[in-house]
Design a protein that fits this description.
The N terminus is likely disordered. Strand 1 and strand 2 form a beta hairpin. The N and C termini lie far apart (33 Å). The longest helix is centred in the middle third of the chain and has 18 residues. The chain is an alpha/beta fold. The strands form 2 sheets. The protein has a 5-stranded parallel beta sheet with strand order 4-3-5-6-7. Strands 1-2 form a two-stranded antiparallel sheet. It contains 11 helices and 7 strands. Helices cover 43% and strands 13% of the residues. It has a single domain, classed as SGNH hydrolase (Rossmann fold).
Length: 233
């Protein structure tokens, strides 16, 4: 691993230190923004209340990430052979998932963690390289407590409303895929070919009126491909 990449990891760790109310700064972009890492506290508390009534069984498959996961309300039934359950919170970024790892990931002792995030990071001004560094931090935090848990990264999909960031999506996906190939316990799931037309453009019919969030047709493709990519429990 080169010195530049190592330096990037160190800078990322500092930027996303997990103290209460800390701000994560998306530097190096004219679209730079500051993210309050605890801005989804109400969503996390809602999951904690839900857990008091129905705690997911250990050794399941947890899906965590942004709105694509949060809106997938039938995930437990759609992927029941994986003992799947969702812990997404809409509009979130990878650093926010890392911030809440102890409260909505490791406490469940999942056998597999499937992350779909990073698209909001890029829309907020992050680069593909920064998304990659954030993913490494997330994976390291999970594996530090659950060394046998397998972690899957679903390729960042280019929704029709976000094609202007295509190069950053591709760069982040490429870096994550290469890292997963050489790192035990990490896996990259490439869903892009199934979601794009012959010209490599997102299939509009799979997305809703906002051209950002998937319709059921999009989730059907995900279900089919995820069953191929993730071994059953």
């Amino acid at each position: 691993m080169g010195l530049k990449v190592k330096a990037l990891f160190l800078l990322t760790a500092l930027a996303f230190s997990c103290s209460a109310g800390v701000l994560a700064e998306n530097s190096g972009s004219p679209h730079a923004a500051k993210i309050q890492l605890n801005r989804f506290e109400d969503s996390i508390k809602a999951y904690e209340e839900q857990d008091k009534k129905n705690m997911p069984a250990p050794a399941g498959t947890e899906f965590i990430g942004s709105s694509t996961i949060a809106l997938w309300t039938s995930i437990d039934e759609d992927l029941k052979e994986l003992n799947a359950f969702g812990r997404g919170f809409g509009g979130s970024t990878i650093p926010e998932a890392t911030y809440y790892v102890d409260r909505i990931v490791t406490k469940y002792k999942p056998a597999k963690v499937v992350l779909y995030s990073g698209t909001n990071d890029i829309a907020d001004g992050q680069s593909g390289k920064q998304v990659f560094a954030s993913f490494v931090q997330f994976a390291n935090k999970v594996r530090s407590q659950l060394p046998k848990t397998q972690i899957y990264f679903i390729s960042m999909s280019m929704a029709p409303s976000r094609v202007q960031w295509e190069s950053q999506f591709k760069e982040g996906n490429r870096l994550v895929e290469n890292y997963c190939k050489k790192t035990a316990g990490l896996h990259y799931i490439n869903l892009l070919p199934a979601m794009q037309d012959k010209d490599g453009k997102p299939i509009e019919a799979l997305f809703g009126p906002d051209r950002l969030h998937m319709k059921r047709a999009g989730y059907e493709i995900w279900i089919r491909e995820l069953k191929k990519a993730i071994p059953g429990n």
